[in-house]
Amino acid sequence: MHSSHLLLEEPIRMASILEPSKASFFPAMTKIVGTLGPKSRSVEVISACLKAGMSVARFDFSWGGPEYHQETLENLKAAVKVTKKLCAVMLDTVGPELQVVNKSETAISLLADGLVVLTPDQKREASSEVLPINFDGLSKAVKPGDTIFVGQYLFTGSETTSVWLEVSEVKGNDVVCVIKNSATLAGSLFTLHASQIHIGLPTLSDKDKEVISTWGVQNKIDFLSLSYTRHAEDVRQAREYLSKLGDLYQTQIFAKIENAEGLTHFDEILQEADGIILSRGNLGIDLPPEKVFLFQKAALYKCNMAGKPAVVTRVVDSMTDNLRPTRAEATDVANAVLDGSDAILLGAETLRGLYPVETISTVGRICAEAEKVFNQDLYFKKTVKYVGEPMTHLESIASSAVRAAIKVKASVIICFTSSGRAARLIAKYRPTMPVLSVVIPRLKTNQLRWNFSGAFEARQSLIVRGLFPMLADPRHPAESTSATNESVLKVALDHGKASGVIKSHDRVVVCQKVGDASVVKIIELED
Length: 527
Known about the structure:
527 residues, alpha/beta, TIM Barrel, M1 Pyruvate Kinase, Domain 3, 3 domains, eight-stranded parallel barrel, 18 helices, 24 strands
């Protein structure tokens, strides 16, 4: 039963599976991104989410205005203070999302084999015969035989709140469709997805730009999740836009791959973006079901080799209404971890789900179990081989630190970094122990005032598997001229001891810069 991705004792004792897992300070190395919304915006619930393992909070602007999200964010800040757990902020753009507009909000029943007309005329009332949409170019983009999905949370196969349409004819600006399954659409807005069809709308809409330049700037967002990224140029344009907005030049851009167009240009997008989100909800519609796993495995491998964080979405949909995931979902979360995912993104499960906190802790527990059997040795060899020789200076230091830590069975790797790059490179080699990334603030000036950088870099490592940041005191330099950098190191070790990651007689691998040289050293702790 030997599987290349799994590290299991041969042959595995079945009884050992039932043994309870040892509790550890870090619930899992894999990170959890939670979407905050109606069911998860009070200080109490957000605090519980942070304690359960959420390290990035996602604000989805597909619904809810800036004031609404600002209230939620103020509650998040309060929760961070109460729990003393860092949390990064991700703004998710709307992008070229097509929507059916149902002003009256009355439920619409659609019956299989009937006809329904999609029209750009938004003055018309939504009904069983007519669905007004927010895009006037659909009739030019589709042809008879094309498939279109409409639903509040997109067609997953099990929901009766979504409908599958087939284009039968195009009449002027209207598109006449045959209804393939009976469904009831409830609510004011439903997403519409035209399968494998190019939609001629900008990736960063004017509405998105307005939200980023006001709400985004005001709150110094750590991540921008760029919905419907289809080309590398989309990322370049978004970056150019962010570079003009004060502190947002530091914001990382995560390209959200949601359709066949993004998949086709995946390699170029990966080069430009800081990370990738595999939006499996929409991708599951654009791809035949039998191809979804292949895309996931190939995309995660490419992200891992590039050392860029990869985030997987739509894992435990059923937990929106249930306390336990289905067995397929539980297996799916574990496979995402074994495939190399850095983080799991929860959408509806935390946004409107009944059990936001339980969902986060359940996903965290599954991730932790999968990490125990992740074949790090094989992964390490594969990565070193992929990087090839000669390695860059930093890459060689990072891989050596990980190899040393594994050989001496270190309990933690401590890495001093100011840009966060060194710590991310260490994490790229997926060490089996946590990496404490000690971010050393740098003093910067804009000729008017001095300020320290570092908070962005620390929070941005909250989406990388195995990286746990702490901000150092700027008075203790990391790159000290003498070879003793004990001050910051002592603080980091004390932090590790207090949190239970490091015990006496443990070995710790430290990666730091001393003068111009990078040093990897092994420390054995006294009592």
